[in-house]
Design brief:
Residues 51-286 form the Double Cache domain. It comes from Rhodopseudomonas palustris (strain ATCC BAA-98 / CGA009). The chain crosses the membrane at residues 20-40, 307-329. This protein has seven helices and eleven strands. It is α+β, with helices and mostly antiparallel strands and 337 residues long. The protein has a six-stranded antiparallel β-sheet with strand order 7-8-6-11-10-9, sandwiched between helices. A five-stranded antiparallel β-sheet has the order 2-1-5-4-3, with helices on both faces. A hairpin with a 2-residue loop joins β3 (156-162) and β4 (165-176).
Length: 337
């Protein structure tokens, strides 16, 4: 009985077009994986650069507020060390105090120090050079910074909310001989400090108070700053920008420093929010900063277009090369068959 022989199958032939398509598909998958990895790495690099720049903005804000506080305290300390000032304050002589400090205050006012005044030992405001007709009011209820200086007999420096507004203040203790007779304060506006930081960092800055944390009374029609829930936009370098961000909820109360990406006017940007601390170390709101990174978006888009174009060109060239190679090898395979 004969055993049937199996008929050998002809070898599988792959056309040149199919070979090129297969090679192109493999390369496309490889290029796609490489592009995805590259894009992810680009995103990480940009995020790190963004966070680094916003951290620099945060440091610039802190440094500017500290420098302003030291300047205010220096002016107060310089005045407090004048013996004639101590004698006039001890005697409650408002006219003598005004005469002694009128010229220095005129200069300081031109340098951005609008608040300058003297507090008596009984915690009444003896003389406001910035409001000379307003005096004699009790400071025990609403001027915690003056109260701290009065009780501890030590200078105080930092941010404080007062009747005239929120200022970076320096308060120095005044003695007449060995006897404590009161304190003197110098206060700086926030807006020039914020503008200084903007010039250095190209970021817009805002000071935002929390009504609950700062324990502010209900607001009246003449109070400064627009309110959004619990937050009050006190001072900023761009009021319409921060008004919109607060209204949209893009800026919220934060107890730690937070940096988040944000699109500003169609451009890539970031928002920084960090605690706002008063002279006593109590959090009373936030400092917010917004910075645009238009160069990030443009550079990223340009780089990705170039990478995608290079990948497509590589795929097309691979398709053509493998198609030609498969066509060249086909006659040889047929001859060997």
């Amino acid at each position: 009985m004969s055993v049937p022989h199996s008929v050998p199958r002809p070898p599988l032939r792959v056309s040149s077009v199919h070979a090129g398509l297969i090679a192109a598909l493999v390369l496309a998958l490889s290029f796609g994986a490489m592009l995805a990895l590259t894009f992810s790495m680009q995103n990480d690099v940009i995020a790190r650069d963004r966070d680094h720049q916003m951290a620099a903005v945060s440091q610039a804000i802190t440094a500017a507020l500290d420098e302003a506080g030291r300047f205010a305290l220096t002016q107060a300390e310089t005045t407090a060390r004048q013996h004639a000032v101590g004698r006039a304050l001890a005697a409650g002589d408002r006219a003598a105090l005004a005469e002694l400090t009128a010229a220095p205050y005129a200069y300081l006012k031109s340098q951005g120090v609008p608040v300058f005044g003297f507090h008596a030992a009984d915690m009444t405001y003896l003389l406001r050079l910035h409001l000379p007709d307003k005096f004699g009011d009790d400071l025990t209820k609403f001027r915690q910074m003056v109260l701290a200086a009065n009780k501890t007999r030590r200078s105080q420096v930092g941010l404080e909310i007062g009747v005239a507004g929120t200022f970076v203040r320096g308060i120095a203790v005044i003695n007449d001989g060995d006897r404590f007779v009161g304190t003197v304060e110098a206060g700086l506006n926030l807006e020039p400090i914020l503008e200084q930081v903007k010039t250095l960092t190209n970021a817009d800055i805002a000071v935002v108070l929390s009504q609950s944390l700062a324990e502010l009374p209900p607001r009246g029609p003449g109070d400064k700053g627009e309110q959004f829930g619990d937050l009050i936009a006190l001072a900023s370098t761009d009021t319409p920008l921060f008004t919109g961000l607060l209204r949209d909820g893009a800026i919220r109360l934060a107890r730690t420093r937070e940096i988040s990406p944000y699109r500003i006017g169609g451009e890539t940007g970031a928002i920084l929010v960090q605690p706002l601390i008063d002279f006593s170390g109590r959090m009373i709101g936030n400092i917010a900063a917004v910075k645009s990174f238009a160069s990030h978006g443009a550079a990223l888009q340009r780089t990705r277009i170039e990478l995608i174009a290079a990948a497509l060109i590589g795929i097309v060239l691979a398709f053509v090369a493998f198609s030609v190679l498969a066509r060249m090898l086909k006659p040889r395979d047929e001859a060997q068959a």
